[in-house]
Specification:
Number of domains: 2
Strand content: 25-35%
Structural class: mainly beta
Distance between the termini: 29 Å
Number of strands: 23
Number of helices: 5
Largest sheet: 4 strands, antiparallel
């Protein structure tokens, strides 16, 4: 497997060879000339802004989603990280920060450039102004206090692999690099809920096991349409998930959908359904049982981690989690 970024993105980058298979990941250290000649959605966040950020909405295959509304990055897709919710629950640090990670590049400035603002952010067309806010960060620009834009309480970021407006390589990306692991999500502007698009379930063979899996990393060119095992919990009953709060934010993220889930090879369409979680999101079910991912299953082929089933039989306060065999 090889991966090539367009020359505009790679030309000004230092590169890191990542593991095997000839895969090269670009870590942006763009020269001033590259920045001046061609602003990109992939530009690193390197300085505080001089004015307010604008957030707008646009129509995509995921429905209406948030984008930057003005300036050099107008039209660039904006994302939230599911595990950033842990901060509001426990006071933990942001999951995407400038702390050490396996790629050696700061999450919040290089990999997922934070959307900063000087002053109250501006609500562009289609954006609910009551959901816009800010959070003070000192871990983005070397201890300098800056204001990151939030939506429905979660910080907003761009993505390194999005170069042009309209690109959405970060959509539904199950990311093993953040701490804790989380899923990067586009944002529906009406209520700030994840814009996941339609969930797709299929059979996946891991080792000697064939299990039901969810397709993730929809557009991520390094590891596109990856599949990850899904789990059910003995703690769930009826149309209620016992896995809430920290359980769902970190260890067992629910499999979400914005529409009726679709069955791929090896999965019965009639077995799929949804429940509505307390936060209004729609969780996929299999034969009436809510479905979850497991945080330690997250990996990127050829870059980080190995394919495995790590959660089968896990005994937790929220029930015992099991995969679903397909053969």
């Amino acid at each position: 497997m090889t991966f090539c970024r367009p020359r505009r993105l790679v030309a000004g980058f230092g590169t890191i060879a990542l593991l095997s298979l000839g895969l090269v990941a670009a870590v942006p250290q763009l020269s001033p000339a590259v920045h001046a000649a061609a602003p990109s959605c992939a530009d690193a966040t390197t300085s505080a802004p001089s004015g307010p950020a604008t957030v707008s909405a646009t129509s995509t295959s995921y429905g209406r989603v948030l984008v930057e509304g003005a300036g050099d990055h107008a039209g660039c897709s904006l994302y939230v990280l599911s595990s950033d919710r842990l901060r509001s629950l426990t006071g933990a640090p942001f999951a995407c920060s400038n702390g050490a990670n396996p790629l050696g590049a700061p999450c919040d400035t290089i990999l997922w450039p934070a959307l900063l603002t000087d002053g109250a952010p501006i609500a562009g067309p289609g954006v609910n102004p009551t959901l816009l806010g800010t959070v003070d960060r000192t871990d983005i620009l070397s201890g300098q206090t800056v204001h990151q834009v939030t939506y429905a309480g979660l910080p907003l970021y761009r993505f390194l692999f999005d170069e042009d407006p309209g690109e959405m390589e970060g959509a539904n990306l199950f990311d093993p690099i953040t701490s804790p692991t989380g899923t990067w999500l586009l944002v529906n502007p009406s209520r700030g809920r994840p814009a996941t698009g339609t969930a797709r379930l299929q059979s996946e063979t891991v080792g000697d096991q064939s299990v039901v899996s969810a397709r993730m990393n929809d557009n991520f060119s390094v590891f596109q349409n990856a599949s990850f095992p899904v789990y059910t919990s003995t703690g769930d009953s009826g149309h209620t998930s016992a896995c809430q709060a920290v359980c769902a934010v970190v260890h067992w993220p629910p499999v979400l959908t914005s529409g009726r889930p679709q069955a791929g090879p090896g999965v019965d369409q009639h077995a799929l359904g949804i429940i509505v979680r307390p936060d209004g999101t729609h969780q996929v079910t299999y034969n009436g049982k809510p479905l979850y991912l497991h945080d330690t299953d997250a990996y990127i082929a050829g870059v980080f981690g190995t394919q495995a089933i790590t959660g089968d039989g896990a005994n937790t306060p929220f029930g015992v989690f099991h995969t679903i065999p397909t053969s």
